[in-house]
Amino acid sequence: MASAERVSIHGGVGTLVDRRHGTDPLDVDRAWLISEYERTGAIFFSGFDASLQAFEELSASMMTGLFTNRGAAFSFGPFKRAAVNDDATVMTATGQRQDFPLPLHGEFYYFRHPPRMIWFYCAKPAPEGGETTIGDGRAALDALKPATADLVRRRGIRFERYLADGDWQVAFQTSDRDEVLSICRENATTVTWGADGSLLSEYYCRAVVVDGQGQERLVNGVLPVALGEQVIVSGQIAAIAPEMANQRPSLVVRWDDGSPLEPSVVQDLLAATAKVEIPVPARAGDILAIDNTRVMHGRRASTAVDRKVLVRMGAPNF
After folding, report:
1. Is 177 helix (H, G, I), strand (E, B) or coil?
2. Are strands 295-299 and 42-45 parallel, antiparallel or unpaired?
3. Strand partners, 210
4. Which residues pair with 44 in a beta bridge?
5. Residue 146, class by beta-carbon neighbours within 10 Å (0-12 exposed, 13-18 middle, 19+ buried)?
6. For the packed helices 52-62 and 30-40, what is the interaxial angle rounded to 10 degrees?
7. Whole-number Å distance between alpha carbons of 160 and 258
């Protein structure tokens, strides 16, 4: 390995790993990678032209407890992830529609046990736009207006979920109610079954999390859920996914007392995360790994229909 110089992606968030550090991402010094990941919250392998197999081997070498999309909130229509080569742990990062941006967020934070580590693989970049974005949760918290920062520190939030009969079977990949209840209990989620066979669930958490280093960070799944509800309720969803028009939002976020988040709070969260957003302009074969307890991620809009980014999630094995 070449000299292990520290090259930040931007502003101290993430470490750039390129051919100065080895000719193959699988050969880069593991101890140094772990050290940089723990120091900066992300590692970006650029310029290796890595194959999908290399991505799978590299991510598997540094993670355990690999996630599937089972129980995921966005499991329908153009937002549904697809498994790759029959491996349920390797998925498309988003659905078919990518012509709208995704704000910074933490993954699976509507469950008690979200993945602690996320890997992205750029199989085919968009000709323009479509960059994966990252942002430091501590910096986002610091960028909030003082009143909003105080509010999210004091108040709990809850994710309320409604899945019609037929939809919950798709989301949880089973028709066994006991199996669904087991998954939800493990994730501290309460479930009520409707008389029509629908599933209603609630999960309480904090908007501000404390990472493994004891730092408060604004890492949660609030923005995509809150903005998604706005798009559905306003009717704008018809232009993105006509098949979802006039449907009830399957997931909403509320304060701990059940009241909706004020529009001013949502806008301040959006403004704060936008301030710390860092685009990662990946080429084909580039790989990004992030700490999902410290670093949020998102996506810039792209009109490309063949952009393809894959994702794998789990827990670090170090």
Report:
1. helix
2. unpaired
3. 216
4. 16, 288
5. exposed
6. 80
7. 9
Burial 186-202 (b: 16+ CB within 10 A, else e): ebebebeeeeeebbebb
pLDDT digits (tens, 9 = 90+) for 197-243: 999 999 999 999 898 888 999 999 999 999 999 988 888 777 776 76
Contacts of 173-179 with C-beta under 8 Å, sequence gap 24+, read: 173/68, 173/69, 173/70
> In Å, how far from its chain's centre is CA 161?
18
pTM of the model: 0.93
Which residue is listed with tokens 């349920």? 88
Tokens of 260: 């909706």
According to DSSP, residue 45 is labeled E
Provide the Cα torsion 121, 212, 17, 316; round to 10°.
-50
Task: Give the CA count within 13 Å in the CB-facing half-sphere of 295.
Answer: 29
Does the structure show a pLDDT above 90 at 246?
no
Per-residue exposure over 1-17, b if at least 16 CB sit within 10 Å of its own CB, e if not: eeebeeebbeeebbbbb
Residue 10 has pLDDT above 90, yes or no: no
Rounded Cα–Cα distance for residues 18 and 254 (Å): 43
Burial class (CB in 10 A: 0-12, 13-18, 19+), 38: middle
DSSP character at residue 196: T
Q: What is the pLDDT of residues 123-172, one digit of tens each?
A: 999 999 999 999 999 999 999 999 999 999 999 999 999 999 999 999 99
User: First vs last Cα of the chain: how many Å apart?
Assistant: 21
